[in-house]
Amino acid sequence: MTMNALPDPKTLYAALVARDPAYEGRALVGVTTTGIFCRLTCPARKPLETNCQWFTTATEARAAGFRPCLRCHPTGATAEGEPLVRDLMARLEADPEHRWSETDLTALGHDPSTVRRAFKRHFGQSFLEMARAARLRHGLGALKEGSQMIDAQLDAGFDSASGFRTAFARLFGHPPHQMVKPSDLRADWIDTPLGGMIAIADDSNLHLLEFVERKALPQGLRKLSELTKGRLGLGRSAVHDRTEAQLRRYFKGEAPLMDIPVALHGTDFQNRVWQALQTIPAGETRSYAQLAAQIGQPTAVRAVARANATNRLALVVPCHRVIGADGTLTGYAGGLWRKEKLIEIERSYAA
């Protein structure tokens, strides 16, 4: 299934009227009476069905003479369509060490509960959780550079050393002082345009690559720790450098991720699913049923979906390329907004 395929116009119009978020990243509507193109979730009044044209990308809509809507911002990721989210993400990027609180949000004129719902909807976590992850990252960098524990704790902006240790232990399964000892697997942070990622590698293979706020990340880290009998620490190898360099080119649209060596830590069935995912070319998608058929178990659709959800090598094992049988975007552990953006990036590779 290529990403240029669209459902029939009646299905799309029904989704437009319902403001169905399932079509985010897959379809845009151009309104012939206004010359504007929008997301299907746009809050503007809905046009008549006869005045609609359908597109898969903003580039197609522009080529047809339409201009982007100023209410739903159809040229950006879904989250970019909300001014509240854009504002707070810009503030977090400008000062990632700031210790955000609900009082800060109120002072900016935002209702904390509204902020929480918006960020949960787009990112799967609250803004305050994202801010805490940013501070934790700063402390991780300080530890890598050899800072004393109290210095790292203060740099990360936590009130107490115990709070800092608790946050690290929750994330990595180890107290911080154990993370700087010699280890077999080394963890480091990689920045991407879609957020920070934790990369764990040895001298030969990448073992884990996850967006830092993913809820299942601590579980994946603990599993790796168990596999290595606790020999999981902070540091970097040539595999980290190679992964970071390829990610940089990938997000610039210069090259798909091609040859990062990986170690798969799953059951035989899971490994087969993950290996099948790696055969999906950038710029194409598959349904769960197609993936099940590819591994020779056409009735194991649900098991394939579970294996897809437990993938610990985001982007490199491209579980984001799996969509619903009807062509709609489905769940993605890294957030549907990221899945939407990744599929959009990979449209250029389809050509």
Quick recap of the structure?
This protein is of the alpha/beta class. The protein has 14 helices and ten strands.
Describe the structure in your own words.
The chain has 351 residues and is α/β, with parallel strands linked by helices. It has 3 domains: 9-75, DNA Methylphosphotriester Repair Domain (3-Layer(aba) Sandwich), CATH 3.40.10; 93-173, Orthogonal Bundle (Arc Repressor Mutant, subunit A), CATH 1.10.10; 181-351, Winged helix-like DNA-binding domain superfamily/Winged helix DNA-binding domain (Arc Repressor Mutant, subunit A, Orthogonal Bundle). 43% of the residues lie in helices and 11% in strands. It contains 14 helices and 10 strands. It has helices spanning 9-18, 58-63, 83-94, 102-107, 112-123, 127-144, 149-156, 161-172, 217-227, 238-251, 268-277, 288-294, 301-309, 336-350, and strands spanning 28-31, 36-39, 52-55, 67-68, 185-190, 197-201, 206-211, 232-234, 286-287, 322-323. The strands form 3 sheets. A 4-stranded mixed beta sheet has the order 3-1-2-4. α6 (127-144) packs antiparallel against α7. It is globular and about 65 Å long. The relative contact order is 0.11. The active site is at residues 38, 319. Its EC number is 2.1.1.63. It holds the Pfam family Ada_Zn_binding.
